[in-house]
Write a structure and sequence with these properties.
single chain, alpha+beta, Type Iii Antifreeze Protein Isoform Hplc 12, 4 domains, five-stranded antiparallel β-sheet, five-stranded mixed barrel, about 25% helix, about 35% strand, elongated
Length: about 270
């Protein structure tokens, strides 16, 4: 009875399929579908739609992205612009849906890479062409040159060349932009940085114009009379910051940073 019903069912225009391919399907139908739909007409209708969707799934394919290499180059440019030391070996792109093929034209298509996507080697980018958005999954294979702390760097210490070392790591996921070579000697640690840790932008800050516990020149102006004296800064400060400092007699004052190691007393 099962073989008789299967022989009657077919898809117009389809090519014959070997029995071995449908063996699991026959098992499924025998144990489930035929018991659920014992009536021949209902069985034939249900079986037709079942086989139709099976064949559609087998023959369905992912539509191609035309000019895909141009899109890969654009994605490479975006990531290397964010990370100059990133060396990309390969970029793969795949539509988020199987039927989302399109032609990429740099003149009429825009590429949006979210900031969160720039921090990892895989994710989703959006390509908008003629008001239609295409969502693509990307994966990047590459390495990144970074700088690691050779030992613990204490808070407020300058990130000097003897405190960090260069290293190459796989590009996978980043918390923030890694510190660049040009920043060595021009940044201080915002907090204690453990040895072996990759130094990134969240851990460092520009060297202040006035540093904590540093001797500074203080200027006090009253009615055109300028008085100058030395003091000790009790906190870091950049130009325009209001900081606390201590005079030689132990008294504390407030002043505004006006330049390198210079403070104007309020």
């Amino acid at each position: 009875m099962v073989e008789h019903n299967l022989a009657k069912v077919g898809v117009a225009g389809s090519t014959p399929v070997s029995r071995s391919i449908f063996s699991p399907i026959e098992t499924f139908l025998t144990n489930n579908l035929f018991k659920t739909y014992p009536h021949p007409l209902r069985l034939t209708t249900s079986l037709f739609f079942f086989l139709f969707f099976c064949l559609a799934a087998v023959h369905a394919g992912t539509l191609p992205i035309e000019n895909k290499e141009l899109l890969e180059k654009e994605l490479t440019r975006r990531f290397q612009e964010a990370y100059p030391t990133l060396r990309i070996e390969a970029v793969t792109l795949k539509p988020s849906t199987r039927r989302d093929g399109f032609r990429y034209d740099p003149g009429r298509c825009g590429v949006r890479v979210p900031k969160s996507a720039l921090r990892r080697s895989f994710g989703t980018v959006i390509v908008k062409c003629d008001r239609k958005s295409h969502f693509l999954h990307y994966r990047i294979l590459g390495t990144l040159r970074v700088y690691k702390a050779t030992h613990q760097i204490k808070k407020d210490k300058i990130i000097s060349s003897d405190r960090v070392e260069s290293a190459v790591i796989p590009f996978t996921r980043l918390r923030a932009r890694p510190m660049e070579k040009a920043e060595i000697g021009r940044r201080i640690a915002k907090r204690n940085i453990p040895g072996g840790k990759v130094v990134d932008a969240t851990m460092i800050a520009p060297i202040p114009d006035v540093r904590k516990n540093e001797r500074v020149r203080c200027l006090y102006n009253e009615d055109g009379i300028v008085i100058e004296f030395d003091g000790i800064a009790l906190q870091n400060g950049y130009i325009g910051d209001n900081i606390t400092l201590r005079k030689g007699d132990g008294r504390t004052l407030r002043g505004v940073v006006t330049g390198k190691k210079r403070v104007e007393i309020e």
